[in-house]
Amino acid sequence: MENKYEAMKQQAIADCQAGRYEQAESALKSLLGILEMHGVAVRSTSTMFWYLVARNRGDEKRAMEEFSRTGG
Questions:
Q1: Which residues of 35-70 are buried (b: 16+ CB within 10 A; e: fewer)?
Q2: Global pTM?
Q3: I need a surface site. Which of 19, 30, 31, 42 has the fewest CB within 10 A?
Q4: Which residues, including other chains, have CB under 8 Å from residue 26's CB and lie 6 or more apart?
Q5: Torsion sign (Cα): 54, 55, 60, 65
């Protein structure tokens, strides 16, 4: 599970960095759901941060502000 998860996460991050925000957001949202099902507190994960970056269309400053408010 971990290797598959990490590969999916890295692809989603690459998509986000390439400006494919909708694709990245969708993949990261799915990964957050998987993590939650496994009992991971997702609010402070790098997956949550990158999800917020994708949702904010690459605006890392805005994503970090939101991440900080959610407990990251």
A1: beeeeeebeebebbbbbbbbbbeeeeeebeebbeee
A2: 0.90
A3: 19
A4: none
A5: negative
State the Cα angle at 67 between 63 and 68, rounded to 5°.
120
Give the integer Cα–Cα distance in Å for 20 and 39: 29
Q: What angle separates helix 21-37 from helix 46-55, to the nearest 10 degrees?
A: 150
To 10 degrees, what angle do helices 2-17 and 46-55 make? 30
Q: What is the pLDDT of residues 13-66, one digit of tens each?
A: 999 999 999 999 999 999 999 999 999 889 989 999 999 999 999 999 999 999
